[in-house]
Amino acid sequence: MSDTASPLDAFIAGLPKAELHVHHVGSASPRIVAELAARHPDSKVPTDPAALAEYFSFRDFAHFIEVYLSVVDLIRDAEDVRLLTYEVARDMVRQNIRYAELTVTPYSSVRRGIPDRAFVEAIEDARKAAEAEFGIVLRWCFDIPGEAGLASAEETARIATELQPDGLVSFGLGGPEIGVPRPQFKPYFDRARAAGLHSAPHAGETTGPQTIWDALRELGAERIGHGTSATQDPRLLDHLAEHRIPLEVCPTSNIATRAVATLDEHPVKEMVAAGVLVTINSDDPPMFGTDLNTEYAVAARLLQLDEGGLAQLARNAVEASFLDAPGKAKLTAEIDSYLAGWQR
Ligand SMILES: [Zn+2]
Question: Could you tell me the keywords of this UniProt record (predicted)?
Fold first, then answer.
């Protein structure tokens, strides 16, 4: 990608960052997929890195879904879940990601036969080990896979509220938006919010601004996943800016899924110009051939940011996070001292 040639790359690589929109299975890098495939020799996923790199070059979106599902099929027991989670944390640490809210879809694993408690214990084990060994803080957003219907919503709300692991901070909704209206999920979000979880659904990625209004009004959204179509409605932009409701913007993902035609046409500039709190994220990074550092480089180009502007993007993510106040203050101070050290 041409953005990797930017002179700001070294600054971005060392910048302490927070990531708010990144999917658990969608973060499985070829290295991790190779390890999982080696545990399940009967799968058709290749195990050597060269063949895997080839496997991960997507012909089109349908091919991407096919590969994604073949990776899902490698997560068969609690040890697979633990390994995936821990290794994703390792990949994040290499990019200086200090805090991440990982979107986890327990329904997919539970439906495939992993008991709910074993699943939750596996991610919690990995979270604690990663924090102790790498110093990264992980939190969870349990999301409803919208395409799986209300049964998946019921099951996700049940697991979130009955098992409510320490790392769980929010409740989400993903999958396709077309034909999956947000308001039907209101009762499940009500239950999750009553249990103290924050609301962070995807909305306005592939449908118009009404979906974002629905997420705000019906699901009590405190943060919006993507929100790409917000710029089609000036009143909505004003509302987001006034109420300081952050958008989790994932530029390269929007191109890969054709939500936006080209990076240069990405509406992130209009979002920032309207005063909306914008955060930059990677979504399903290895699947889209990106990582958070690359997304920061893309944002620097689109928004014409220097080091100070990039540090502000990192601070935005901390502000928009569901981290507690001392955690936010600590990470913001790290960002500030990194910037000050760089400018000396
Ligand atoms: Zn997403």
Answer: Hydrolase, Metal-binding, Zinc
Catalytic residue among 101, 155, 205, 295: 205
- Residue (of 162, 156, 128) closest to 142 by Cα position: 156
- Residue 26's pLDDT band (boundaries 50, 70, 90)? very high
- How far apart are the C-alpha atoms of 192 and 170, rounded to whole Å? 8
Give yes or no for a contact between 278 and 247, defined as CB atoms under 8 angstroms apart: yes
Task: Name the architecture of domain 2-343.
Answer: Alpha-Beta Barrel (3.20)
Domain positions in the chain: 2-343
205 is catalytic: yes
Tell me the CA–centroid distance for residue 195 and ligand 1, in Å. 23
Tokens of 318: 């901390």
In the β-sheet with 224-226, what is the strand arrangement from edge to edge? 202-203, 224-226, 247-249, 278-280
- Expressed in angstroms and rounded, the spacing between residue 334 Cα and the centre of ligand 1 is 27
Partnered with residue 226 across adjacent β-strands are 203
Global pTM? Answer: 0.94
